[in-house]
Design goal:
Layout: E1 4-15, E2 19-30, H1 33-52, E3 62-76, E4 82-100, H2 103-115, E5 121-127, H3 131-156, E6 161-168, H4 186-194, E7 206-218
Antiparallel strand pairs: 1-7, 2-4, 2-5, 3-4, 6-7
Length: 219
């Protein structure tokens, strides 16, 4: 039976964010389906117009999801009987805008969004552009780390490292998002750009790691 050695290799990286990603959610509610859709369309056009004022083309505003669902409200009558009352059709439109790290531009973008009639919910994240390149470098580092440790153990025990037999790698959904949280009240958003105020924030680095198991022959 062949002798083998299995070693987990780890690649790590601390990456500085270079992109800003703004996720927006628009809600349009009406008891009439056609009117709800019309409201959703008007919200989108208002948002596109506002974003155009700060240099974004329409095709830079990406749709990540669109959903229409019925909304009901639970009410109680005079004898405390519960009843579900139809509130309307709710059009939920999820959008995303990405641009290079620039806190002054971020302030201008937030101010433009606040001027739109759409009034979207916002989530701001700091991320990276070349995520695939970073992942590849992590895997290379994991392979080098595993082989180095395997060679050390073989040398310490008086054996030699042979051919690579197998590689075990479980792909996971790695998050390329900084843990830094950025929130701003709508009224503050409106005045941020007008007052020429922006804070030169420095988001936390994104801490990443990949683990791969390598199995070698021992000779």
């Amino acid at each position: 039976m062949a002798r083998t050695i299995a070693i987990n290799g780890t690649g790590t990286a601390s990456v500085k964010p270079d992109r800003i990603s703004i996720s927006l959610t628009l809600f349009a509610l009406d008891t009439d389906y056609a009117k709800a859709m019309q409201k959703a369309s008007q919200q989108l056009e208002s948002l596109k117009k506002s974003m155009g004022s700060v240099g974004f083309d329409s095709d830079e505003i990406k749709t990540t999801g669109f959903n229409v669902r019925t909304e009901y409200e639970t009410v109680f009558n005079e004898i405390n009987q519960r009843k579900n009352v139809f509130k309307g059709y709710n059009c939920i439109h999820n959008l995303k805008i990405d641009f290079d790290m620039d806190t002054e531009r971020l302030a201008a973008v937030l101010s433009a969004i606040s001027c739109a009639s759409a009034e979207p919910e916002l989530h701001i994240a700091f991320t990276v552009e070349n995520s695939e390149e970073i992942r590849e470098n992590l895997l290379r580092a994991a392979a080098e780390n595993s082989r180095k440790n395997a060679e050390i153990l073989c040398d310490a025990t008086g054996v030699k490292l042979g051919n690579l037999i197998s590689v075990r790698y479980d792909i996971d959904n790695m998050s390329f998002v900084s843990p830094t949280s950025y929130r701003m009240d709508r009224n503050c958003m409106l005045s941020a750009s007008a007052d020429g105020c922006s804070i030169d924030i420095n988001p936390e680095n994104i801490e990443l790691s990949e683990n791969v198991e390598f199995e070698w022959e021992i000779v």
